[in-house]
Design goal:
The protein has about 45 residues and is mostly helical. The chain has a domain of about 30 residues. It contains 2 helices and no strands. α1 crosses α2. The longest helix is centred in the middle third of the chain and has 14 residues. It is globular, with a radius of gyration of 12 Å. The protein starts with 14 loop residues before the first helix and ends with a helix. InterPro entries: Arc_rbn_hlx_hlx, HicB-like, Ribbon_hlx_hlx.
């Protein structure tokens, strides 16, 4: 599934969801982008 290429995207999220993402990312020592990428990868993996 991974191509090795990184692409910048623009998404819209509920403010509460964004705050939860930021909190969890900080707790794990990740950037927001890294957290979203990790979470999405886990969600679409077989």
């Amino acid at each position: 599934m991974r191509t090795g290429q990184v692409r910048r995207i623009n998404i819209t999220l509920d403010e509460g969801v964004l705050k939860a993402i930021d909190w969890q990312a900080r707790r794990l020592g990740l950037t927001r982008s890294a957290f979203i990428a990790r979470s999405a990868t886990e969600a679409v993996s077989d």
